[in-house]
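Please, structure for the following, as tokens.
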Amino acid sequence: MKDIEKLLAIEEIKRLKSRYFWGLDHKDWEFWRREVWAPDARLIVPEASRECVGVEAILAYVKESTGDQVSVHHGHMPDIEITSDTTATGVWAMEDRLYRTKQFPLEDGSIYLHGFGHYQETYVRLERGWRIQTTRLTRLRVQLSKVF
């Protein structure tokens, strides 16, 4: 792959991650399924002791775990490496804010979470473009509150 092709692939992967955040924050699950994930993708969230394999398992878990929350996700400073014509890896610094209702609090009863951490990812280029193959979310710091 030529350097210019690598740069274009990196930009496409940045747009892919943007679609990830948009679909998640808007709870547009069909968009998420169609535009973000490889069919056999994996989502790993160690703090929740969760690993989902396959896009349908990912969607089921995220739909259930987000309930009626409003979320705001930001991804920063991507470090993306193109490893072949059809594969890549990346690490994103992230910040998220989760706003829950008292009717659907987090496990500890909190209704607000402000997290800081990283997404470690692998990507695959399919006929329809780059998709997330694996994503691993780790938070370095979490601020929780039972009131806003």
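Residues 3-26 form the longest helix (24 residues). The helical segments are 3-26, 29-35, 55-66.
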